[in-house]
Design goal:
Layout (H helix, E strand, L loop, with lengths): L15 H8 L2 H6 L5 H7 L6 H13 L1 H10 L2 H13 L5
Helix pairs in contact: 1-5, 4-5
Length: 93
């Protein structure tokens, strides 16, 4: 896997719905934890825009196009779940 789209194996035939389900799980966060410390740091900064930070993380994880598609389909509660999962792992970095 390269650093640009760390969550997509080379040659993977993707499905946005599957990615949306996966990105909200603790397992996804654990699987990709080595790529996530800077997003945890940004989320713990006072006044951080959590939706913007998660959007950037998704674009880095899946590439700009797919990341934006995932971001657009997430609801507020989904962003909150992702943030919660990231912060729960913050002690493991």
């Amino acid at each position: 896997m390269n650093n640009f789209s760390f969550a997509i194996p080379a040659g993977y035939d993707y499905d946005i719905k599957t990615f949306i389900k996966e990105v909200k799980t603790k397992n996804w966060t654990k699987t990709h934890r080595k790529h996530l410390p800077r997003y945890v740091d940004r989320l713990t900064t006072t006044g951080a825009d959590k939706i913007q930070i998660i959007g950037g993380m998704l674009q880095n994880a899946y590439g700009a196009n797919i990341g934006r598609q995932i971001e657009q389909r997430l609801q507020t509660k989904d962003f909150e779940k992702i943030v919660s999962n990231l912060l729960a792992l913050s002690g493991t970095y």
